[in-house]
Amino acid sequence: MKKSKIICLVVSMLMIVTVFPVVGLPIQPSEIKNTTVIPPRFQAPTPGYAPVPPADAILDAPLLKETRQITPATMDDVVIGIIEQVDESLFLSYEQNLTANGPRPTESASCIAAAEYIYNQFQSMGLEVRYCPWSYAGYDSDNVEATIPGIDTTSDDIYIICAHYDTVSSSPGADDDTSGTVAVLIAAQILSQYQFNHTIKFVAFSGEEQGLLGSAVYASEAASQGWDIIGVLNCDMISYAITSNDGNNLIVFENTASEWLYSYTVGINNEYDQYIDLTLHHGGSTWGSDHNSFWDEGYDALFYFEYTETPYYHTAQDTIAHINLSYGVKNTKLILATLTELAEASMLSDPPAAPELIGPTNGVINEPYTFEAVSTEPDGEDVFYYFDWGDGTNSGWVGPYGSGVTGSAQKSWNTVGTYTVKAKAKDINGAQSSWSPSILMTITTDHPPETPTITGPAEGEPGNAYLYTLSTTDQDGDQVYYFVDWGDNLTSGWLGPFNSGASASATHEWAEEGTYTVQVKAKDTYGVESDWGTLDVTMPVIVQKHQVTQLQYFLQQITQLLQNLGLRSIRG
């Protein structure tokens, strides 16, 4: 009897130890950036149709290999230039193109169409691209892989950024996992403009929702061929956030062998914090995405996952309307910066200079306006220009133009507001300049006055006042004011109001000789300003002095002559 009680006690204690941690209350995540702190554990969702591993499955077995030693990252202008190219419009365009296929279950026509789209995008970037067909567990499909070979001939290191492009049959998968696939495509597009010491592979998997099938075959084949994959960055569900807390935090899952890689991405996040602005959380081990296939083959890998899991997971509501583009951009920047530092990026060529941007500052809705940009390329190569219109749209790359040749694009706005217009340039190798100084373009429903004319003397004498006539018309018939800049650091202030089409006048005298560019602009009664009209005025003092000297000489001669005549009369 005593023996049976002891056995019951032991069994009860084992249940307390093994069961309670599983069914207990969840631990609230805390914000951490210090990898020495013991972090909370998070749980990622499982693939849609995949069998769940048994409770006694070992998901975090330490691998019998040396910990990778990589120099910690320090801020690099090349990396900054890379991650600053990631923006919401780019993220959205890829999201729209992929989700347009609808749900993409493995083997479906829409899944095949998505694979073709990804393949074509990789190919258009000039990358080495291939389909990687696989057959597993009764399914047949294709992974899509693009490669940038490393330029260091002594290195066979490979880094992978990956995501899955398939979805469950009930969902278009804007978050799961179009968002991760978008990160892979953005990385490929931007990094195709650079070169790297080590090889990078961009991989989109299918079969993830059936149990990581595509990645399992890919990782197994890589291991059998002896690929030296140093690190894998898996992006799965990285775009859902409805609060600022959601949008400022990100979970990163890793196993014991991949702790060095987690520490590295934390270092990247800290180093480029002003460009990324995230707090990372140590997720621990989880099997529920394609990174696990690489763990199974002894490779180190991370799994980046949104801080708060979308409630629309595996539903028809997992749409673009329920993702956060800003959050997706921040997460993509972190992953891209990590990959860039690991693979050791450098420029393919010297980038063009930041372009000079020329264009109007005022306009009205639905009227087209022309903006011009000009840049020089240090190697004399042709350049392309890209205009950002400040309303979420852009011109795309226009060109090519010769180095130093002006490029232009037109834009109209259909909403009243002030828009920040800027431009950048790239050369034929894809090396991009920094952004130009911006132009603030104010769009109203009211038309500005026409550019005014200024008429009057084009030359004169310093110290004398001269009269100038100002004239313009306002398309809306509003009264106008004039403002004259006399070119000598003096202005007229606003003069008026005057009726549209009526002339106004202003006088001015210049104190010193020289050539002055007189400028005049007009505004209507609503404050909408015109562009500047100009007139060059010269004060030719030297010429006037010479003319005065000749006149004085002539008068002196006449006076002397009269004096002589008078003397002779007296003597007679």
Quick structural overview:
By secondary structure, the protein is α+β, with helices and mostly antiparallel strands. The protein has twelve helices and 25 strands. The chain has helices at 2-23, 77-83, 88-99, 109-124, 174-191, 213-224, 244-247, 259-271, 273-276, 291-296, 325-343, 541-571; strands spanning 128-136, 139-148, 157-164, 194-196, 199-205, 228-235, 249-253, 279-284, 301-306, 345-347, 356-358, 362-364, 369-374, 383-388, 394-401, 407-411, 417-427, 439-444, 453-455, 465-471, 480-485, 491-498, 504-509, 514-524, 533-539.
Polypeptide structure, described:
- The chain has 572 residues and is α+β, with helices and mostly antiparallel strands.
- The chain has helices spanning 2-23, 77-83, 88-99, 109-124, 174-191, 213-224, 244-247, 259-271, 273-276, 291-296, 325-343, 541-571; strands at residues 128-136, 139-148, 157-164, 194-196, 199-205, 228-235, 249-253, 279-284, 301-306, 345-347, 356-358, 362-364, 369-374, 383-388, 394-401, 407-411, 417-427, 439-444, 453-455, 465-471, 480-485, 491-498, 504-509, 514-524, 533-539.
- The strands form 6 sheets. Strands 1-2-5-3-6-9-7-8 form an 8-stranded mixed β-sheet, with helices on both faces. The chain has a 5-stranded mixed β-sheet with strand order 12-18-17-14-15, with no helix packed on it.
- Helix 3 (88-99) packs across helix 5.
- The longest helix is centred in the last third of the chain and has 31 residues, at 541-571.
- The chain starts with a helix and ends with a helix.
